[in-house]
């Protein structure tokens, strides 16, 4: 049966919306292009096309920074226009909304996510929020009411959220401000340092997706890969092309990956022993778009001696969880309304 319900995961890099009418998920870049400081020129994937290419009168920006809303005005405009673009405006009238929020942020920051819908032109009947790791757990198919402890590590664009859940709640959780964007940034830096070539963040992301490998064996030819990149030579100022290899990318990213693993180990050390034994049994669940880095799950397994589970399309695990939560009344207890604070 179709339902007038919508689930939203507002990430730093991607905006994911579940539509209960069509039972579909859309996943677009969470970015907006504003022309002449006032007109919304483009949103989502269309605005991302313009990123790092737009003339001075068009400002292309991401309204979320480090997992929290940095620009509420643009975030509201983006959501409103996204619903119009997806042709939802007629059906959302009177709809019920569920928004996922990071757990390790302040109540004021959580309230801002709620206000994105509440203060917009969308006429919602009900708006609830759910903690992201809880939605992640439901999306992973974990029995949320069980007394068994689970560790979920969600590696997104700006953040890594590490959480231990049990009995439908969060036992401990920590957000580290490191994710896929940090890797893109250091890939830009190493290409500049090594080859005197300036590349954009989009090119760096493509290099990461094609070449990043969390385990690199210098003795083996199997993991040696390369790709051609285009940029600007900082000495001549001219456009140029250059081959970048996987060993260079490994050297660049290995420290960032090891600091993520250190944070996982720190949370394991703080986990109550009874829950630790459950985690030994079930292993760690790895989610978020950056979980797709080649061999990252294997590296975490080697470093922690724990099994690591990765699901298909890990970047949509949270929104898959929200879709289940909002569609089934048995999950209603996981939803709440944040307190009305001013920010
Ligand atoms: N195949 C891939 N290999 C490596 N990284 C990838 C791949 N696909 C996507 N990513 C990275 O995943 C990140 C986006 O993941 P995700 O959608 O979970 O983040 P988000 O929810 O927008 O961010 P956050 O959780 O930090 O708010 C980006 O940094 C992107 O480059």
From TrEMBL:
Q: Where in the cell is it found?
A: Cytoplasm
InterPro entries, per the entry: ATPase_NBD, MreB, MreB_MamK-like
UniProt keywords (A-Z) are: ATP-binding, Cell shape, Cytoplasm, Nucleotide-binding
| Protein name per UniProt | Cell shape-determining protein MreB
Key word Cell division present: no
Which proteins does it associate with, and in what oligomeric form? Forms polymers.
Summarizing the function annotation, the protein's role is: Forms membrane-associated dynamic filaments that are essential for cell shape determination. Acts by regulating cell wall synthesis and cell elongation, and thus cell shape. A feedback loop between cell geometry and MreB localization may maintain elongated cell shape by targeting cell wall growth to regions of negative cell wall curvature.
């Amino acid at each position: 049966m179709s339902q007038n319900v919508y689930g939203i995961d507002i990430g730093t890099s991607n905006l994911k919306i579940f539509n209960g009418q069509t039972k579909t998920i859309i996943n677009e870049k969470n970015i907006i292009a504003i022309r002449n400081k006032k007109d919304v020129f483009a949103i989502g994937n269309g605005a991302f096309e313009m990123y790092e290419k737009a003339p001075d009168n068009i400002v292309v920006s991401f309204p979320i920074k480090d997992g929290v809303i940095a620009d509420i005005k643009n975030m509201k405009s983006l959501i409103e226009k996204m619903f119009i673009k997806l042709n939802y405006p007629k059906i959302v009238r009177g709809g019920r909304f569920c928004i996922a929020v990071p757990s390790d942020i302040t109540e004021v920051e959580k309230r801002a996510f709620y206000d994105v819908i509440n203060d917009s032109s969308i006429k919602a009947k009900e708006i609830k929020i759910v903690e992201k790791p809880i939605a992640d757990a439901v999306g992973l198919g974990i029995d949320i009411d069980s007394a068994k402890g689970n560790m979920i590590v969600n590696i997104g664009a700006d953040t890594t959220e590490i959480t231990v859940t049990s009995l439908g709640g969060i036992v401990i959780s920590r957000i580290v401000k490191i994710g896929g964007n940090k890797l893109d940034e250091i890939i830009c830096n190493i290409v500049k340092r090594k080859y005197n070539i300036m590349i954009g963040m989009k090119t760096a992301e493509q290099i990461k997706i094609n070449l990043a490998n969390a385990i690199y064996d210098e003795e083996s030819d199997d993991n040696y890969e390369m790709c051609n990149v285009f940029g600007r030579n900082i000495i001549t100022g001219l456009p140029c092309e250059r081959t970048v290899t996987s060993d260079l990318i490994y050297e660049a990213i290995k420290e960032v990956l090891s600091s993520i693993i250190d944070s996982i180990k720190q949370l394991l050390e703080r986990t109550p022993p009874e829950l630790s034994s459950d985690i030994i049994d079930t292993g760690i669940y790895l989610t978020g778009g950056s979980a797709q880095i080649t061999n990252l799950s294997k590296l975490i397994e080697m470093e922690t001696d724990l099994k690591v589970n990765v699901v298909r399309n890990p970047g949509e695990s949270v929104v898959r969880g929200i879709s289940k939560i909002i569609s089934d009344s048995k999950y209603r207890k996981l939803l709440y309304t944040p307190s009305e604070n001013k920010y």
